[in-house]
């Protein structure tokens, strides 16, 4: 009898299973709308030219022994975390000026969420967290595995309008217990692609301030959503200006195309800078027990690009290219659906923003598309707009 005889099979992760099934499909018109990764107009992965330049420079630095493969500090590459934090908060941020903000390098956005969640459980004894209904499929798993015991949702998607259920969100936050942790999407909400307006963000902040709720932003798409780094960071900066203490996970998977390099940052904003050293010491122990040290390559690429004016300018051009292509595909898909007199309203496809569109299709419709038409999408109706290309638009519509 094996020690592991009682281990049962876990359900497959839907998005990765979709990709495997699509890869095995031999149909000439198959479309993969599941995976959240940028694709060129030809449907190919894109290594950003600026990333290639940064990697070439890093290779030269290794040859010159300017950099090596020694361990990074436990909390990461200082110049990277500083640059990432400044990119998020803005160089004129009051938190930066008053030295009340710092960053912790993490294993992309997922790792930043986990580091922050474990700290909140261990040090602040948090137990209740809220995430939007629907949300990114990993939010609940990360926070539960970090030790949170009470997972709750706040309303977000209005199925009847394929729009934003703002009233439901506000009511649910008003009913949340004091001190609860609220996961908020900084921009390009996953999976709906619907973001609150600036006025709505103001009302959300009002309720959270009144109820003493703790904001934990997830910022996976800064620059990738609208093409504008400042616009995509507006909500986070607004909360900082309102005086909130907060965590924000940052990912450079999408806006740098560094999916497998796991380059991420946890930005922390506090009211009193004298608290920072103690907080860092506790996060050091969390990291030490989990993965000991972060990887260097992806963070060095981001660090080099953010601090080199020429590379930084080129990178901003790249994120504009990616975001513009996605916006173009949104307009193309809506236009074709309307020309075909497809039942229903399709304005939500162009009103949404970012990588994903929540189509409003039922699980039965999605299953039909997958089995009969070789269109691979999540059963909740989410599609990755990056998988939509000029060559497959007509077939998809």
In short:
The protein is α/β, with parallel strands linked by helices.
List the helices and strands and how they pair.
Elements: H1 14-24, E1 31-32, H2 49-63, H3 78-89, H4 94-97, E2 101-107, H5 108-124, E3 128-133, H6 139-145, E4 150-155, E5 157-158, E6 163-164, H7 166-174, E7 181-185, H8 198-211, E8 214-219, H9 229-232, H10 234-241, E9 246-251, H11 253-256, E10 263-269, H12 276-290, H13 297-307, H14 309-339, H15 347-351, E11 356-358, H16 363-373, E12 375-376, E13 382-384, H17 393-396
Parallel strand pairs: 1-12, 3-4, 3-7, 7-8, 8-9
Antiparallel strand pairs: 2-10, 5-6, 9-10, 11-13
Helix pairs in contact: 2-13, 2-14, 3-13, 5-6, 5-12, 7-8, 8-10, 13-14
Subcellular location: Cytoplasm
Domain Aminotransferase class I/classII large: 29-397
EC number: 2.6.1.1
């Amino acid at each position: 009898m094996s020690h592991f005889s009682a281990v049962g099979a876990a359900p497959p992760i839907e998005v990765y299973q979709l990709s495997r099934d699509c890869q095995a499909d031999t149909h000439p018109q198959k479309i993969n709308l599941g995976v959240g990764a940028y694709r060129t107009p030809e449907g190919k992965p894109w290594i950003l030219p600026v990333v290639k330049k940064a990697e070439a420079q890093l290779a030269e630095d290794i040859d010159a022994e300017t950099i090596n493969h020694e361990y990074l500090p436990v909390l990461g590459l200082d110049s990277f975390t500083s640059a990432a934090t400044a990119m998020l908060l803005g160089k004129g941020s009051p938190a930066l000026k008053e030295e009340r903000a710092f960053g912790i390098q993490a294993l992309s956005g997922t790792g930043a969420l986990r580091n922050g969640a474990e700290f909140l459980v261990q040090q602040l004894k948090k137990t209740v967290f809220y995430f939007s209904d629907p949300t990114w499929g990993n939010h609940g798993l990360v926070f539960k595995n970090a030790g949170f015991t009470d997972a709750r949702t706040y309303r977000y998607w209005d199925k009847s309008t394929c729009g934003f259920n703002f009233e439901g969100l506000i009511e649910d936050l008003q009913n949340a217990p004091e001190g609860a942790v609220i996961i908020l999407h900084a921009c390009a909400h996953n999976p709906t692609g619907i973001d609150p307006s600036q006025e709505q963000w103001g009302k959300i902040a009002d309720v959270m301030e009144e109820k003493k709720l703790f904001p934990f932003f997830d910022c996976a798409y800064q620059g990738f959503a609208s093409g504008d780094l400042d616009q995509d960071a507006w909500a986070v900066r607004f909360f900082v200006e309102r005086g909130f203490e907060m965590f924000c996970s940052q990912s450079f998977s999408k806006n740098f195309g560094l999916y497998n390099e796991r380059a991420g940052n946890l930005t922390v904003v506090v009211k009193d800078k004298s608290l920072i050293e103690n907080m860092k010491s506790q996060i050091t122990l969390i990291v030490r027990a989990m993965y000991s040290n972060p990887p260097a390559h992806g963070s060095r690429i981001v660090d080099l690009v953010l601090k080199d004016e020429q590379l930084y300018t080129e990178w901003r051009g790249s994120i504009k290219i990616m975001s513009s292509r996605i916006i173009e595909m949104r307009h193309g898909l809506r236009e074709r659906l309307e020309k075909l007199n497809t039942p229903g309203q399709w304005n939500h496809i162009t009103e949404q923003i970012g990588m994903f569109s929540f189509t409003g299709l039922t699980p039965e419709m999605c299953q039909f598309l997958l089995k009969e038409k070789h269109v691979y999408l999540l059963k909740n109706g989410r599609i990755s707009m990056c998988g939509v290309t000029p060559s497959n638009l007509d077939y998809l519509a």
